[in-house]
Amino acid sequence: MNITDLTGTVQLANGVKMPYFGLGVWQTNDGQEVIDAVTYALDAGYRHIDTAAIYENEEGVGTAVANNKADRKDIFITSKVWNADQGYDGTLRAFDASLEKLKTDYLDLYLIHWPVKGKYKETWRAMEKLYADGRVKAIGVSNFLQHHLEDLFQSANILPMVDQLEFHPYLVQQSLLDFCGQHHIQYQAWSPLMQGKAFKVPELQQLAEKYGVSVAQLVLRWDLQKGVVTIPKSVQQQRIISNAEIFGFEISPEDVAAMDALDRGERMGPDPDNFNF
């Protein structure tokens, strides 16, 4: 990943350029809260917004994008099909519903939100159709571990271009990161700041002090240096701005390795091998 500034992108396997830094809107309320958060981000120079059907805030995201001075074509919008809608027909219907709420006629990236056993292969077949029809620029998955990916590969005509996973210093999953790299699947982080717990890790506090940055800035810069697209969530304007101020310093290879070594295999969210929703 060539890290330049907030407008920087990575090139997906199909040539589509994906901004490597964006705003996540999980647990952001629909209506004014999400409209404000997306507006703050776009006005600060962000060009990547990540939502999902289950977040129930696609309408607010769509309103903020439609009302912003930035052109829609310059904004990378991701959404995800929820588990209850998986399957071939359900996915096509869910996609239409997301487009309507987002007030757009295409998505930049559409993801399978979780690997629902017995369903995700049919879901992927629908994703391939949406992609072939030109209704989405890139397709991918979320929360798929290596064995899920390998299973999907057996029937897929197109490999996922992105895998969005929980990723932070306590959950590095380097072998999965390497596997995705080998198959040209872009790794993307959710909960990069460990749902706030990163701020309490002494080693991260010490390194942040060394570089003269916040813990959030340190971790988000580490994401990019690991080649991982990151989408930190915030609703506060100042936090949204400061999260993106990560282009004036570089973490040394030794300190990247020290952050990697914090890995405990510890999840803040559900286990992709053991979820019941």
Describe the model.
It is built from ten helices and ten strands. It has helices spanning about 30-45, 60-65, 90-100, 120-130, 145-155, 175-180, 200-210, 215-225, 235-245, 255-260; strands at about 10, 15-20, 25, 50, 75-80, 110, 140, 160-165, 185-190, 230. The strands form two sheets. An eight-stranded parallel beta sheet has the order 3-4-5-6-7-8-9-10. The protein has a two-stranded antiparallel ribbon with strand order 1-2. Helix 7 (about 200-210) packs across helix 8. It has one domain: NADP-dependent oxidoreductase domain (TIM Barrel), CATH 3.20.20.100. It starts with 8 loop residues before the first strand and ends in a 17-residue tail after the last helix. The chain has about 280 residues and is of the alpha/beta class. Helices cover about 40% and strands about 15% of the residues. It comes from Chitinophaga eiseniae. One of its GO terms (molecular function) is oxidoreductase activity, acting on the CH-OH group of donors, NAD or NADP as acceptor. Keywords: NADP, Oxidoreductase. It holds the Pfam family Aldo_ket_red. This is Aldo/keto reductase.
What are the defining features of this structure?
single chain, TIM Barrel, 10 helices, alpha/beta, eight-stranded parallel beta sheet, two-stranded antiparallel sheet, 13% strand, 38% helix, 277 residues
Give the neighbour order of strands across the main sheet.
3-4-5-6-7-8-9-10
CATH topology: TIM Barrel
Number of helices: 10
Give the terminus-to-terminus CA distance.
34 Å
Largest sheet: 8 strands, parallel
Question: Would you report the number of β strands?
Answer: 10
Helix content: 25-40%
The CATH homologous superfamily corresponds to NADP-dependent oxidoreductase domain
Radius of gyration: 18 Å
| CATH architecture grouping | Alpha-Beta Barrel
**CATH hierarchy, class:** Alpha Beta
Overall pLDDT confidence: 98
